[in-house]
């Protein structure tokens, strides 16, 4: 009796764990045999089973739980991961492309500069070969046979050779002055005052000889000079002056930087034309008023050429001042 009372007086927590597990095991077998017929028994058995399985041993790993919220979060994170990877690959590709473009842009100006170096020698050489050499070394008697059409055409052909060389020279100069990157827009528009002054000088170059010819035709100047002789002496001069005006207008319209040197090239050769006209005047026994007219034209075009050269110097100084101001402003801004 004492033993029985002692066992009854013991606390409930002293019951062995093995007995509790045995009871739960029997209940689990009973739940399987009834095949889920009793819903209340099902809930009770699931409750006891959960309590039994929740007490895991310390050395067992924690069970993997499943939650729909975790799935959505995982998929969302996976989508962000792919987007991040794709954006990272795009950024890396853009950086690589930028580096390739930078390397290409650094290499292309050097290659173009190597190609443009011969132009600095080839352009002036064309002017020398087409303008100066035929005028100085070609005997005048070989192209001048007298005051006739053949002599006029020979002299015009000689000046056309120079015009061809001058055109090539201006194209090469424009190529050297163009920017390294062809995608950049580049324009050089001359001032309106410069255009007006050049047109006035060119018109005066027309007016002076034509006025003398008209005075000879009207009989104001004696002795008269035949038209064919006048054409042989000053015909190539007037023709090349017309070509110069057209070339200048084209450079102004295209806004090419060669507008500054175009009149210098043609006016320098014009002096050679007029000096050749003096020799032809002696051969044709031209009247004194014609010789004085040619000498006056030489003096006028020397004056115009000097002013053109001063314009080049002024433009160079203006560009240098602008560059220095921009450099100073950039340094102060930094």
Automatic annotation (TrEMBL):
Residues 158-280 form the DUF7733 domain. InterPro entries: DUF7733. The chain crosses the membrane at residues 117-140, 152-173, 193-215, 227-246, 293-314. Keywords: Membrane, Transmembrane, Transmembrane helix. PANTHER family: CYTOCHROME P450 FAMILY PROTEIN, OS01G0704200 PROTEIN. This is Uncharacterized protein LOC111409885.
